[in-house]
Amino acid sequence: MSEEMQTKGDEQRSYVVAGATLSCSQGDQTSILKMPVSHGVYVKNKAQMNTMDFKPNVNIQPFGLCQTLANPTVAAATTANNGVLTPMPCTPVVTMPWINGKDDQLVENFAALINQSINMCLYCGTIKVEDDGQE
Fold it and tell me: Of 32, 49, 61, 25, which Cα lies nearest the Cα of 111?
């Protein structure tokens, strides 16, 4: 299996593996994508991820401090601080699989996760892959 795929526009597409770096548009830190149990498919000896690897605190870890008022803890802390935005610890609320997987490359019956895949937190954060984790 190829570790990289053809380009789409100017971006090189690649498969995402355990240990990839993720970011959230509402968090102040990156986090590491985790894989508790391998699907049995590997890229460069690292477990390959699929679009169903989206579970909060299992696959997707917190992103430091959350800064959106859509998060009830941030809203409450901001209200208590006289309206001054008060970031609070991130608790990702992700309820759906990753989108933009590679549908023609299945990993344990689900689309392979690629570096252009995204997900959404219910608190209005866009979660994306910053580094595919292959290196």
Answer: 49
